[in-house]
Amino acid sequence: MDNFSKRKYVLAAIFILVALAFTVRLFRLQVQDNDYKQSATRNVLRRVITYPARGLVYDRHGELLVYNKASYDLLVTPRELTAFDTTSFCQILDIEKEELIANLQKAKKYSTYKPSVIIKQLSPENYAVLQEKIFRFPGFFVQARTLREYPQKTAAHVLGYVGEVDRSKIENDPYYAQGDYIGVTGLENSYEEALRGQKGVSFQLVDVHNRVKGSYREGRSDTVAILGKNLTSTLDAELQAYTEYLMQNKKGSVVAIEPATGEVLAFLSAPTYDPSLLVGRARGANYQQLAEDTLKPIFNRAIRAAYPPGSTFKLINGLIALQENTINEQTRFSCSGTVSRPIRCTHSHYSPIALRDAIRESCNPFFWNTYSSIIRKYPRADQGYQVWRNHLLSFGLGQRLGTELNNELAGNIPEDSYYNYYYGENRWNALTIRSMAIGQGELLITPFQLANLAATIANRGFYYTPHLVKSIWSDRDEQEELKFERHETTIDPSHFDVVIDGMQAVVEESNVRYSSKLDSIIICGKTGTVQNPHGSDHSVFIAFAPKENPQIAISVYVENGVWGSRYAAPIASLIIEKYLQGQIAPRRIAVEERMRDANLLNPNQPK
Amino acid sequence: MARRNNIWANLDWVSIILYLVLVFMGWINIYAAVYNEEHSSILDMTQRYGKQLIWIVAALVIGFTLILVDSKFYVFSAYGFYAITILLLIAVLLFGTQVKGSTSWFQVGGIAIQPAEFVKFTTALALAKYLSSYNFKMHRFKSLVIIGVILALPVVLIFMQNDTGSALVIGVFLLVLFREGLSGFVLFLTFIVAIIFILTLVLSPLHTIFTLTAGALIFHYIMQQRLSETMKALVIYASLSALFLFGGPIFEINVSEVKLVLASTILSSVIFAIYSLRKGVHNLLIVLGLYLGLVFLTFSVDYVFNNVLQAHQQSRINELLGIESDPLGVGYNVNQSKIAIGSGGFSGKGFLNGTQTKFDFVPEQSTDFIFCTVGEEWGFIGTTTVIGLFLFLLLRLLYLAERQRSTFSRVYGYSVACIIFFHLSINVGMTIGLAPVIGIPLPFFSYGGSSLWSFTILLFIFLRLDASRAEKLSH
């Protein structure tokens, strides 16, 4: 009666096959394929970043150099957008409608449900207005960030600036993400890790409409943002400002160091710029403008420009000769003035002359003889040269001093192999490289190294790595003092006295005294003139004061300043006076005004 | 009283326990899918899980009541029930409320009733009644017409409500008819049609026709066993289609390639038919007829797809077949559903820990996509358990159906199994990307009174019939 009962097997087979197909498919979806698990996590987890405020920077007396002001980024979640009044929106925010539309398109392209920044760094005024009306614009919200603010508007080259992190940094350092800020130059860069603090991350669960539904694992994976650490800089804000005041309308650099510690008191590359130009939305445009400026305000001359040291270098040659015992304090060399050979003298003075007065007179023939005596002490010129060079290296010349600022130039003290290559082995002698006797020739020294030389002489034979940060604040009260290395020179301390006497004579007996001698403080200094084929010579002066227990050592470069005594020395003396006395003596106000008003931006100045 | 006791003893408790387990699991998963911390009690009547409990209790009462009814009543009133639901379908077209584009709901007070859900069991009853009628022969024209009418009436009415999913369910009665003696050829043809449907959409009609031609030629060779004859046919088809395809553009006949191929196919078939007739090879004509039929089918598929189906249906099919991929648009549901199930892993994220379903990434997570919650929170273990339980129930129903003495009970039993099977395959299939997104609920699992009640009624009538299988119900 039922002929088709066997067909039940066909049906059962269909049922079983479909169930089997489902099982196989489910196995592949659920067990084999891991992509779906990640997709699900991506779906619901939002990393909400809390940005800590960057650390502040103080000067050595606790004066604020850098702090933060709040800034507001406007973000949008395209998915939550509804039609809104674009005209009034643009009015509130002061932007063009086209810009808004273009940015919205970009945001949509990035993601419809993840927020992206529409406008960076709203002005506080725009933000205030927007805050009242933002409820009318669903999908938009504001995120607070911080921007740098500079109450003193000084020390731009030291402080550096903060910018958005670039792609290669993001790829190499997992800490950074697109849109994060990072110190690009200066202390902002070298103390980035201390200053930035630690971003906090909280994981939030969101639903399909991007509404926050709670925290992930009750916040167990969240981290709290850690504030950036504050820095106490070695700079003296007042002195720094004064330096910039004096150096206006001039090119050059000033570096002042506390000899006993290596702490940099003032650090200027002139012309400088207002650090607040490189903050916020205008940074790009302002940077462009600064970069295109023919005076190169961004260029850090103090560590990036290397000049021949000129006559200031004679001090070292004197010291090395004393150490090598090829001269002593009484050794006299004769000088025939402008007809001296191989190097003529530029001053007229009595002859023969000994070291102390030779420094005062900056006598080229004396130092030629001094220099050649060192080189000729050894059988071969290259041996003598090596000995001489090693003494130089012990002063930190020809190498990076290792300050915190990056891009420091090493300068140049050529190796003997350079001359072997250039002239041929044994084909050169002291005479061949005579210009180094007076700080010219292949020698290249940065203003920063020259300031360190002044500090080393002030210390009578040692220096601490010059640095710009005293301490990092671990806590509000506890400050971590930074330690820096002490370097000994190869010169015995006893040899310094005569040189220092000579430096005192420069300031008190030569024509430098008219502009640079102080009434109650002994300044020891040395002028220099750097030959400049492109215009007037550069004016150089290094000094320290007071003579006993020196508090400040300084190098001043004034490009196109013609003579060391004309600008560099008076400016150095003013800075020293300001630092040690707190004010400029009334009788020197005229000097101060003359220095301040001098405009040396034209490379050709009258002799 | 003895008889009453007899019924309880004769009830198939295995099926009832399976039913209870599935309903309970469904309720738990609905709770997880729409879990709301402000209303964390599973008994909270303002939430879907609370309401579902009401539907469950009501369903149990319905089931209990159905068992109390004399089994002869179902046989007796089969056509009556059918007529009532057909009238309801007409009424809902006229007075129903529109929900999501479908006019398939009656709003009675706070409760919405969907007549299409109930038409399944009444159609099953009507079909069972007709197939068990005295002297019924399947392959009589009159029988086929009546069966056609019984099935087509609800299909057409439900289609008119714009509820494609429920209409397609009726198609599953083909399996029941197959069991009752409908030629396997019909099933085979349905299968071929489905294949051609997919081929046409995936490959394009042109490719499908060439595939069919190749298939027919192979068939020809198998039947003739003479290579030279097959080669002749190949030459006729190849040269003619080449002539039409390249000749068309040369003579600047502005007709699409597909139509050119169609013309060449018809022409070469006619030539080949005349040739075969003169040779006296008549059985080749069957192959030829079948071949031409399928070629026409290809065109009609192309036509139906582009001109009859609605845009959203087209894109759902396209998405399934991988022709279009649009994970944020049409494919969003399936994509999110696959993410939900896939992210469950082997053992799942744990009860109430599913993020995909709880945070609304999966749409309709308590109704059509309830299987996602199972997959996400209970993992591979959970999904295979559910499929295992369903398979067990289906095979159990087949077994029960086969042990019936009356044709009525057997046909009805098969109907129950096949309807549940269809719902299961389409519903689970769509959540894992094996079937197009057709909005039909997962039996016993999905939220909703109408669906749960209709499946309860469907199942319990059969269990009641089975309990009195010893009695003579009809011829």
Automatic annotation (TrEMBL), chain A:
InterPro entries per record: Beta-lactam/transpept, Beta-lactam/transpept-like, PBP_dimer, PBP_dimer_sf, PCN-bd_Tpept, Penicillin-binding_protein_2
Domain Penicillin-binding protein dimerisation spans what residues? Answer: 50-213
Give its localization: Cell membrane; Membrane
Residues in a coiled coil are: none
Gene Ontology molecular functions: penicillin binding; peptidoglycan L,D-transpeptidase activity; serine-type D-Ala-D-Ala carboxypeptidase activity
List, alphabetically, the Gene3D superfamilies matched: DD-peptidase/beta-lactamase superfamily, Penicillin-binding protein 2a (Domain 2), Penicillin-binding protein 2a, domain 3
Q: Carries keyword Transmembrane?
A: yes
* SUPFAM superfamilies reported in the protein's UniProt record: beta-lactamase/transpeptidase-like (SSF56601), Penicillin binding protein dimerisation domain (SSF56519)
Put simply, this protein is called Penicillin-binding protein 2
TrEMBL record, chain B:
Q: Please give, as recorded in its UniProt entry, the membrane topology of this protein.
A: Multi-pass membrane protein
Bilayer-crossing regions: 12-32, 52-69, 76-96, 141-160, 167-199, 234-254, 260-277, 284-305, 378-399, 411-438, 444-465
Supply one GO molecular-function term: lipid-linked peptidoglycan transporter activity
Q: Where in the cell is it found?
A: Membrane
The record's principal subcellular location, in a coarse class, is: membrane
Top-rank taxon, per record: Bacteria
- What biological-process terms (Gene Ontology) are attached? cell division; regulation of cell shape
Residues in the signal sequence: none
Can you list the GO cellular component terms from the UniProt entry?
Answer: cell division site; plasma membrane
Keyword annotations for this protein, in alphabetical order, are: Cell shape, Membrane, Transmembrane, Transmembrane helix
Known Pfam families for this protein? FTSW_RODA_SPOVE
Q: Which InterPro entries match?
A: Cell_cycle_FtsW-rel_CS, FtsW/RodA
Q: State the protein's name.
A: Cell wall polymerase
What organism is the protein native to?
Sunxiuqinia dokdonensis
